[in-house]
Design goal:
This protein is of the alpha+beta class. It has a domain of 73 residues. The chain is built from 3 helices and 3 strands; from the N terminus they run H-E-E-E-H-H. Strands 1-2-3 form a 3-stranded antiparallel beta sheet.
Length: 151
Amino acid sequence: TAERVDPAVLQAVMRTQKPAMTGDREKGYILSIPLLQRNRLLGIVHLETCAAEICAPSGVALIERIGAVASIALDTAHRHAELMEEDARRSQTENALRAARAELAQTSHLSLMGGLAASIAHEIGQPLASIVSHAGASIRWLRRSEPNIPE
């Protein structure tokens, strides 16, 4: 928060991407270490009231190395989360594709059955229509006032 860490220090660490130390011996030091991955700022670690050993140059170098490891861990966690999201999207897409294929197979099956039913109806309908037509002609010939039996 602004009460604990000076916003100007945050801006300086963000701009320079270098550690910064503020405070004094009485109030304590605050060490701000940037977390970088491929020259990209991932975050800033603030060590409040750091001891004199840590605020010494060798301690700062050690904290920077720890920050580098933390940066790698954060980047790895971020990439893992992205891969998990991508895997979930891929899984959803595969499920949708599987459902679409099943629906297509069912539609194709129903279309084939409809075509087969129409073909059977046509094959049965043709001879029946011929029979009805011949029967109708026969009945008309027989109903004449003088039926033509040989015809």
